[in-house]
Amino acid sequence: MKMRSTSSLSVIAGCCRYRAPLRLSFLNLTPPPLNHHRLCIIPPPHLAAAAAATFSSRCCRLPDPHPSTGNSLFSSMERFWSGSSISKNKEMVEHLKSYGVMRSSKVAEVMETIDRALFVPEGTQPYVDSPMQIGYNATISAPHMHAMCLELLENHLKPGMHALDIGSGTGYLTACFAVMVGSQGRAVGVEHIPELVETSIKNIKKSEAAPLFEDGSFSVHVGDGRQGWPEFAPYDAIHVGAAAPEIPPALIEQLKPGGRLVIPVGNVFQDLQVVDKNTDGTLSVRSETSVRYVPLTSRDSQIRGY
């Protein structure tokens, strides 16, 4: 197995590494260089085995045994830019841009188009940069994680492409995918909690993605996300919103050559892994950052609290 590694600036924050926003440089934190990105080229005969391979995280043990989905910013650092006083969706996007979390103008445009307030429980602060409980031991990721994942997948969410969102929850990120791939593409959400699917459809119909849902280019389904959704495969982009102990082989199979999968992998220690399927069928896998997500598991285990 051929391995290559590069380095990336990280900040130790609440016992977890976080890729620092640009404006946080005033903190004067100068961590040592870390081989944070790890790239692995996997030959075609071992695709299934490679899909099951995980790359261990070097972050510290986190104190919360039931972490919130997509929270890569912890403790006091989050208070620097949590945005608790933000009351409008556009302000949330501008806030993320001002701290260097969001660099893509296309991602900014999409996150401005899809109002997060339509996809979070009533009575919550929709624009706070924090994950939120949505019931059934599930959460919606923090806005900075949505921005990160959209930027990682941006080149695979062009008009006409196919996108799959596993663990679609309240439908927010799936709606962003739908807007990006447009009516000539296909955006598919898979969620194994029927009540969340029902809620997500109601949310989508109130959003700017409603016409895409009505014309059939955007759909949400009840199913086991670990099996993907073969009906509209292969996919140019696949996102998984929960941490798998190993990459499900079905998702690798349904990923189009030239496509990209973004998935958190691990148990206590988790990495956000970026998996590119090359045109010859090999896989390139790298770890983007250390993260903390709820587990990708069966519906019964999730309802029981894992």
UniProtKB/TrEMBL annotation:
GO cellular component terms, semicolon-separated: cytoplasm
Catalysed reactions listed for this entry: [protein]-L-isoaspartate + S-adenosyl-L-methionine = [protein]-L-isoaspartate alpha-methyl ester + S-adenosyl-L-homocysteine
An example molecular function term from Gene Ontology annotations: protein-L-isoaspartate (D-aspartate) O-methyltransferase activity
EC number: 2.1.1.77
Top-level taxon of origin: Eukaryota
Pfam family membership, one: PCMT
Protein keywords: Methyltransferase, S-adenosyl-L-methionine, Transferase
Alphabetical list of Gene3D superfamilies matching this protein: Vaccinia Virus protein VP39 (3.40.50.150)
Broad enzyme group: transferase
Single Gene Ontology BP annotation: methylation
Family as reported in the entry's similarity comment: Belongs to the methyltransferase superfamily. L-isoaspartyl/D-aspartyl protein methyltransferase family.
NCBIfam families in UniProt: pimt (TIGR00080)
PANTHER family: PROTEIN-L-ISOASPARTATE O-METHYLTRANSFERASE, PROTEIN-L-ISOASPARTATE O-METHYLTRANSFERASE 1
Name recorded for this polypeptide: Protein-L-isoaspartate O-methyltransferase
